[in-house]
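Hey L., structure's done. Input below.
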Amino acid sequence: MQVKIIKKDEELVSITDLIDSVKKSPYIDESGAIFSFEGIVRGKENDSEVKKLILSTPDMDKTQKSLENIVEEVKEKYSVKEIAVVHYLGEFYTGDPLFLVAVAGAHRQETLEALKEVIERTKYDLDFQKDEHTNQGTNIIMSGG
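Output:
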């Protein structure tokens, strides 16, 4: 299981890397579906043009542990075989990847539901601050925690 909070310039993991790591699971023979998600920076937000986005967390270790807990809970709830997640911190521009998830499971329905829950819980339950710099100023968006 690969679950990481990474500072943008420390390590580069692509969605393909994440899918490949899931495929190396000892349980891949029991899997019939892999779903993935790559969250990227939008260039427009409402009527604003996004210039850059800065994503941070006040306690990287606590956020890492919380993400690991989410993954374990979702894995158990949906009986999926493997979940891999990478969430980046740092400064990002339009099209840059921020959040990657890959889930392998026996059947597509529970695998897709597991993916959706990891996405939603990560967005709303973890302690992130997003500073969105636009052509109309800076918006600070807090989540979770």
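The longest helix spans residues 60-78. The helical segments are 15-23, 60-78, 108-125.

-- N.
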